[in-house]
Design a protein that fits this description.
Shape: globular
CATH class of the largest domain: Mainly Alpha
CATH architecture of the largest domain: Up-down Bundle
Structural class: mainly alpha
Helix content: over 70%
CATH superfamily of the largest domain: MFS general substrate transporter like domains
Distance between the termini: 23 Å
Radius of gyration: 23 Å
């Protein structure tokens, strides 16, 4: 299908065709047929290296995401002392990243549809850098708040665009593992913030926060745009060039090119999306699964547990809460790395069910520990044992979350949303995730004050509900192309 035919399908005349913000680049064409004698194993290896290089570059975005999430924990005492902030003022500072992320999430889908995935990441990187510098040089709370909002805005865009870009460039047999790199990078960012926070002051830590995006910006010029986005925009030549680079210069991409063209042609007859269209199963079902799964990721209480983890460590007799928090961050990284390795072997559904079941069991341990501690003397041996048991429950919960409910909801969202509604639906799902993240973060202290055991029981019930939802509604996407997944909803 030619680009002219694509234009006739409903994207307007040739003069109205949208162009990528950062062009694919003609340098990719160099040597595209240099070595026709290379074997299939070498071609496979070249393909993996090419895609992996792209994933490692865009993974700098989620590292920034994680660094933003982790920054407030090791810096709270120092910032409050230096700028004379009250607890409520610092709490506002911490929560503003969620507010900014909600704004970024609302706009992320449309931005990525109009200027491409790479252009969106460029747009996200710039406010992040400005935000970190604003925090680093802050003399009063206003600069802190502005910086946090700007960071949140960039993170809101990153949280949608990166998993979508990875899903659109990855071969079907590697998409699960590569897609999970998104969440792995988030946990690495959190761990780095905890670790560096032990050694440098909060202003230096903010300057270090600019480094992922400072590296991301030049890196974007060396990777291809998403071939599926280029195909959707009717940029046929760039689409085929991008796909050739990603699969290896000697790989035969004919079948994949034709499959993507057929998928794009079937959705390009009318570009205006009407609410009435959402009544079709092909749209409402993936939209519902994507949104609910990202909401349940937060309702399982991961932010509430992490928020309260320092108190749990103190109650168990662990004096250095910052070191313990870093330990939790390291555990998250290891567990998420295991999930990255497993997801293309076991499938998405099994890992989600195992993860949610493990979270429910772990939260039951924590809830029972807190319930029983209310009836036991603080001087008794049992009280100390229950404190240790609650720590074990928290650690098991974080491991369980990292094995499935951390990385996979983002992966599923990027895989199942149809091309036609991906921008709008993806923005909505990302917004829902950030909204409920904010709700859990805000309500956790209030619920803990009401009843610690009751709070963890609520989280446990939500994890049990997640098991049922996944078993009934979530499809298995392992080993299927994006086009096959979307066709299955028709």
């Amino acid at each position: 299908m030619s680009s002219e035919e694509n234009n006739e399908d409903g994207r307007g005349g040739g003069g109205d065709l949208r162009k990528p913000f950062l062009h694919t680049g003609s340098w990719y064409r160099m040597g595209s047929r240099q070595s026709s004698l290379m074997g299939s194993s070498q071609t496979m290896r070249d393909s993996s290296i090419s895609v992996l290089a792209c994933v490692l570059i865009v993974a700098l975005g989620p590292i920034q995401f994680g660094f933003t999430c982790g920054y407030s924990s090791p810096t709270q005492t120092a910032i409050m002392k230096d700028l004379k902030l009250t607890v409520s003022e610092f709490s506002l500072f911490g929560s503003l990243s969620n507010v900014g992320a909600m704004v970024g999430a609302i706009s992320s889908g449309q931005i990525s549809e109009y200027i491409g995935r790479k252009g969106s990441l460029m747009i996200a990187a710039l406010p992040n850098i400005i935000g970190w510098l604003s925090i680093s040089f802050a003399k009063d709370p206003s600069f802190l708040y502005m910086g946090r909002l700007l960071e949140g805005f960039g993170v809101g865009i990153i949280s949608y665009v990166v998993p979508v870009y990875i899903a659109e460039i990855a071969p079907q047999n590697l998409r699960g593992g590569l897609g999970s790199v998104n969440q792995l990078s988030v946990t690495i960012g959190i761990m780095l913030a905890y670790l560096l926070g032990l050694f440098v002051n909060w202003r230096v830590l903010a300057v270090l926060g600019t480094l992922p995006c400072l590296a991301l910006i030049p890196g974007l010029f060396f990777i291809p745009e998403s071939p599926r986005w280029l195909a959707k925009m009717g940029l046929t030549e760039d689409f085929e060039t991008s796909l050739q680079v990603l699969r290896g210069f000697d790989a035969d991409i004919t079948n994949e090119v034709n499959e993507i063209k057929r998928s794009v042609a079937s959705t390009s007859r009318r570009t205006t999306m009407r609410f009435a269209d959402l009544k079709q199963r092909r749209y409402w079902l993936p939209l519902m699964v994507g949104i609910v799964l990202l909401i349940l990721q937060q309702l399982g209480g991961i932010n509430g547990v992490i928020f309260y983890s320092s108190n749990i460590f103190l109650s168990a007799g662990i004096s250095s809460s910052n070191a313990a928090t870093f330990g939790v961050g390291a555990i998250q990284v290891v567990a998420t790395a295991v999930a990255t390795w497993l997801v293309d072997k076991t499938g998405r559904r099994l890992l989600l069910i195992v993860s949610s079941t493990g979270m429910a069991f772990s939260l039951l341990i924590v809830a029972v520990s807190f319930y029983v501690k209310g009836f036991v003397s603080e001087d008794s041996t049992l009280y100390g044992v229950l404190g240790i048991l609650s720590v074990v429950g928290v650690v098991l919960m974080i491991i369980s979350f990292s094995l499935g409910m951390g990385p996979i909801p983002w992966l599923i969202m990027s895989e199942i949303l149809p091309v036609k509604i991906k921008g709008l639906a993806g923005s909505t799902a990302t917004l829902a995730n950030w909204l409920f993240s904010w709700v859990i973060t805000v309500t956790a202290p209030l619920l803990m004050a009401w009843s610690s055991g009751g709070t963890f029981t609520i989280y446990m019930v939500m994890c049990a509900f997640t098991v049922a939802f996944v078993a009934i509604w979530v499809p298995e996407t392992k080993g299927r192309t994006l086009e096959e997944i979307q066709f299955s909803f028709r």
